[in-house]
Each structure stands twice: as C-alpha cells, then as structure tokens.
Amino acid sequence: MSMRENNPVSHPSHYTDGNIEVIDFIEDKNLGFHLGNAVKYISRAGKKDPAKEVEDLQKAVWYINRHIMNLVKGKVTSNEDSESNWFDRSSV
Fold it and tell me: Which domain holds residue 55?
C-alpha cells in the first residue's frame, strides 16, 4: 500500500490508494490521452465521490469508445482489425 502523503494537486488520495500511483502506471504503459483517461476514471470510480461511481465508469467507457473510433478512422496506429463491428458506434 502506498504511504505517500495526500496532496490534492500532485498526489490526490483517490489515485494513490494502491501500490503504485495511477499516473505512474499510465506513463509506464505509454497509454496516451484516451486510454490514460479511461484508466484514471476506472481507478478512481467511487473514490473521489461515491455518488459518482457510475458517472466515472461511464466516462471511462466514453474515452475507450473515442479511442476505438480513432483506431477505426486510422487516426491511431495499432494492431486492430481494419473495420471491426463489435461495438455500437452510436454510443460514442
């Protein structure tokens, strides 16, 4: 468990409750903006504000769908299939 001092700017408690800080994981995995935000919202879901757990998870889904749409449009390089139809584009 992380024993970092809670600092609302550089080490907020809703991102430092595990063995590593969320930003360190995102940077280590080189996730980029959309996937990094998805991880951020998943990791803090219900911790920053328990009443907004569902909203945090919905935001994570939004960022993942946005990343998928960029992959499909060819805006991001990845090992994805060319035109995958396994997700509902209307939800983006």
Answer: 33-91
